[in-house]
Amino acid sequence: MNQRMRLKPLFHPGRLLITPTTLASLRANGIPVISVALRHVTGDWGIVSGEDREQNDISINVGLRLLSIYRLPDGEKVWVITEWDRSQTTIQLADDTPVRHAPARQAGVRNWRPLPSLPGNSQWPC
What we know:
alpha+beta; five-stranded mixed sheet; 3 helices; 5 strands
């Protein structure tokens, strides 16, 4: 019995951004960027604490910031953060220097790239 699973997004991620180091790390681990984004928007919060998981579930309905954390095969952690107003979702390594989230027209965003379209739908263990 072959059944296709249909993933239902729980929220709109807004503009998708990724750091260059995160993109390189995902590629080195063979993880398609789109699979990270899909896990996040469908409510797979990864390895966040139980408290953060509950907060995310509440935040979907009341409009607060959302956080997912995924462990890559090489042990690095990837954070996925969606802003409270759903204007943007940032994918970054836990070790990346935090950058103030700002509209794209401001200079601080130059280190961020829009999420590329990559083929693939693989999952990886977390």
